[in-house]
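User: I've been going back and forth on whether these two constructs are worth ordering. Before I decide, could you fold them both?

Assistant: Sure. I'll take them in the order you sent them. The first construct and its structure tokens:
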Amino acid sequence: MTSGARPAKRPPTAQEAVLAEIRRAILGGDMPPGTQIFQDELATRFGVSRVPVRDALRTLEGEDLVTYVPRRGYHVIQLDVDELLEIQQIREILETEVLRRITPAVCAEVADRMAVAMDEMVEHERQEDFASWVSAHRDFHFALFGAAEMPYLTRILGQLWDASDLYRAHYMHAGQARQRADDDHRGLLAAVRAGQPAELVELMRAHRETTVRSIRRSLIGHPAD
């Protein structure tokens, strides 16, 4: 007879634990853009050697959350409006192609997963846990993107989303932007539940534009033209 018990979850390695904590500090605003990162201090803080800290920072560099400058070490990336605009332009092209592959049958398959992710987003927002919100937000959107069965394109989208996670967290720290983000996500979920994939391209375009406008306003003091 087989047991109904779930297998025990593997505890995180030192590198995984350190990675999660540094990522949370960056996306949560405890390590703002431009912050210099001292590996010895982090090693002491987490009670580990420099090796897992160094490996974690290399991973975060690949996610475009930190950058390494020779003789100056690691820093949290600076937010740059022109970079954000370029990322969003590429995302629009790729996400539009993905969303055009979505069918009403696919909508029925992913609606519940998107709803779960949205509930998590709401709870993380209530707790102002923006690092966890960013993760749940990705789950919400990639439940849909992944259903298009374009794995290579979806991986490329993942890299673009890595590069914009810090902008996304910055957007959520601006309290006035949160309600509009919530409304946009409810609209996307409603279209999926209604089995109306044709609406998704326009809804996502409007969602991206609203996000960019809000971030640009907060970074340079006025909305995008």
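The second construct, handled the same way:
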Amino acid sequence: LMDWLRRKDNPYFARAFVNRVWAAYFNVGIIEPPDDINLANPPSNKALLDYLAAGFVDSGFDMKWVHRTIANSRTYQLSWRPNDTNTLDERNFARAVPRRLPAEVVYDAVTQATAADAKVDEMHEQMKGRAIALAGASNRNSNQGSAFALSVFGKSLRESNCDCDRSNESSLLQTVFLQNDRDMLSLLDRGDGWVSQLARADRGSRNNAADATNRRDLSNAEQVVTQFERRLKKLRESDGGEKAIKAVEERLAQARKDLKRLSAAKDAPKSAEPMDDEQLKELVEQAYLRSLTRYPDEREMGRSLAHLREADTPFDGVKDLLWALVNTKEFIVNH
């Protein structure tokens, strides 16, 4: 069978493969629908289909050649913004057609946007944990959040696992899932998430600085107490006078109070100082880059900073911002 598929005089396999890859990139196949290849359903651009099929065969059936050729084409790099001549054209590849991301890409994008840096690096290096590696979707009762999310966004159930019943249509359930599903909210709050990473890093840096200052002050206070104790001992041994002894005793008592206060402060929880505007701007930029892969414009930056300043903590504000960005059309749509 494999020998027959790869024979150069086999006109079916190469054409079907490159047509399906093209449809994945453009939402419309050169032969549409991609599953209906027959003489009664001719290609919209026969020369293009023949070129890609021949190139696929000549490259030794190199799938990378197909993807590279399509991705480097002017057609693929066209804007999704329509003009007067192609507003209603979704078949002749005159512009990019905005469409919802496939189920696996949606889930991986949400996971990556909300994950800590180490988790993102892990997703880049291996398939483990990525939605594309899952066998199929399932219903909520399976207790597998990722599998349920995939079913929400149109992946076939594992029982059938057929692309013929896959759906790329938007639905109300998808909106509800991204806004307030427990699995979605747990991704934002999880321990190996980006928001938790920011909070830990900030708490560590602030505590380190506060501890260094406290240790220095504590050491100075201990030295002051020791000096007054020695001075008081000498005065008592040399009968330095009741008035002088009383004065040193008072100063020693005050020094001991200071030492006690600093010792208590050493073990007390540190309160976070407010972040300055530059730090807040950096958080906003990171949130946009990891979700929408772009920097915010001036208006978006202003609104985001205002929310971060009003939040109970900057990290609560960042979590709200990231949740809002994941719920935008820009995030969920391939454009």
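Notes on the second construct follow. The chain has four domains: 2-71, 99-183, 202-267, 277-334. The chain has 15 helices and two strands.
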